[in-house]
């Protein structure tokens, strides 16, 4: 029995048709990246976002105040993990692919914002992209 393989474009289209509350932004961004990297292991990169959230949670000692959680999130991402904007090569296409941003810890505001949102959502922060 052959199961039809859906393309990254089809999977992306399905993802963005979901109601906003159900949309998985990281998955959608990784499906865009899969157009450039056809063998991209989407689940592995989603797991990396999970681990970043766990790293933050481990440092919080049961703290749940949103401002303190957000402070630890930004400290973890930008100080401990070294995420930063790519000032030297802003237009490098890798800055736009979430997998590359997670690997290189370099990105543009849009993709760095996706990392912050996704890790924050995993920590139950009420964050919204603008």
Description:
- This protein is mainly α and 130 residues long.
- The protein has one domain.
- The chain has 6 helices and 2 strands.
- Strands 1-2 form a two-stranded parallel ribbon.
- Helix 5 links the parallel strand 1 and strand 2.
- Helix 2 crosses helix 3.
- It is globular and about 50 Å long.
- The mean pLDDT is 94.
**Class based on secondary structure composition and strand pairing:** mainly alpha
Low-confidence stretches: none
How many domain modules?
Answer: 1
| Helix share, percent | 55-70%
Number of E-state strands: 2
Total of helices:
6
Q: Judging from the principal axes of the Cα atoms, what is the shape?
A: globular
Gyration radius, rounded: 16 Å
Strand order of the largest sheet: 1-2
How does the major sheet shape up? 2 strands, parallel
Beta fraction:
under 5%
- Order of helix and strand elements from N to C terminus: HHHHEHEH
Q: Mean pLDDT across all residues, rounded?
A: 94
What is the CA-CA span between the terminal residues? 45 Å
What's the topology here?
Elements: H1 8-16, H2 25-36, H3 42-60, H4 66-80, E1 84-85, H5 98-104, E2 106-107, H6 109-122
Parallel strand pairs: 1-2
Summarize, please.
The chain is mostly helical and 130 residues long. The chain has helices at residues 8-16, 25-36, 42-60, 66-80, 98-104, 109-122, and strands at residues 84-85, 106-107. The protein has one domain (8-122).
């Amino acid at each position: 029995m052959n199961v039809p393989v859906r393309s990254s474009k089809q999977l992306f289209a399905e993802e963005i048709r979901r109601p906003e509350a159900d949309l998985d932004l990281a998955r959608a961004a990784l499906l865009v990246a899969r157009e450039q990297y056809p063998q991209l292991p989407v689940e592995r990169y989603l797991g990396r976002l999970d681990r970043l959230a766990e790293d933050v949670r481990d440092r919080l000692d049961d703290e749940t105040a949103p401002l303190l959680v957000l402070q630890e999130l930004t400290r973890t991402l930008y100080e401990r993990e070294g995420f930063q904007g790519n000032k030297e090569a802003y237009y490098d296409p890798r800055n736009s692919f979430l997998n590359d941003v997670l690997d290189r810890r370099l990105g543009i505001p849009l993709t760095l914002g996706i990392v912050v949102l996704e890790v924050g959502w995993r920590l139950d922060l009420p964050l919204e992209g603008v």
